[in-house]
Amino acid sequence: LPVPPMSIRFDQSAGTLSPEGPTLTRRMSDLEGLFRDHAAWQKAVADGDPVVYSVISSPVPEIDRELPQSITTIQPGTTAGELWMTKGHQHPNHQGEIYLGISGRGGLLMFDGTETRWVEMTPGTIGYMPPGWAHRSVNIGDEPYSFLAVYPGGAGHDYGWVLEHGMGLRALSGTDGVEFVDYVEG
Ligand code: PA5
Ligand code: NI
């Protein structure tokens, strides 16, 4: 159902939006096939299956011509050196999207099937995803990383695309910050 003009409040300490739409929690077990080290992923699932990230949404519906928003919070952590991240997806109809850094330190990894781009995200950074660029977010700090996403209501989420094509590069925790390796080799 469409919603009236409104303001939406984000309470950062409580991690809530009001009014609020659907909330999504992604645990390690929801990230099957995404980390390069499958055995380390399995072990993390067996060892308590931690929450990796959560997504809270505004009440604006995901339907064409609407402009929904959500706030993602990725916990700090690594699995066999690979920084904790979102699943990543492509928009089936190749619509663009923006993110706004809210707190913590992160990165926005984008892949168009050929080239990979990395945008470092700090509070106040706007990251732009042009049409046709799959996107994944990574927490590169040692506190939770939160960002606001604003996207066309009809954009959709194609997770299979990333399972099939990868993201070009992987972000690992390096000695002085992030270190990148080829997606396939790890
Ligand atoms: O619209 C977006 O791109 C974001 O809100 C993501 O959906 C969110 O960050 C979670 O990532 P993913 O959908 O890849 O699990
Ligand atoms: Ni998206």
Description:
- By secondary structure, the chain is mostly beta strands.
- Helix content is 9%, strand content 40%.
- It contains 2 helices and 15 strands.
- It has helices at 38-46, 159-165; strands at 9-11, 16-18, 23-27, 51-57, 69-74, 78-79, 82-83, 97-103, 106-111, 116-121, 126-129, 134-139, 145-150, 169-174, 177-182.
- A 6-stranded antiparallel beta sheet has the order 3-4-5-13-8-11, with no helix packed on it.
- A hairpin with a 4-residue loop joins strand 1 and strand 2.
- The longest helix is centred in the first third of the chain and has 9 residues, at 38-46.
- 31% of the residues are buried.
- The structure holds 5-phosphoarabinonic acid and nickel (II) ion (NI).
- The site of 5-phosphoarabinonic acid has 13 residues, from strand 5 and strand 12.
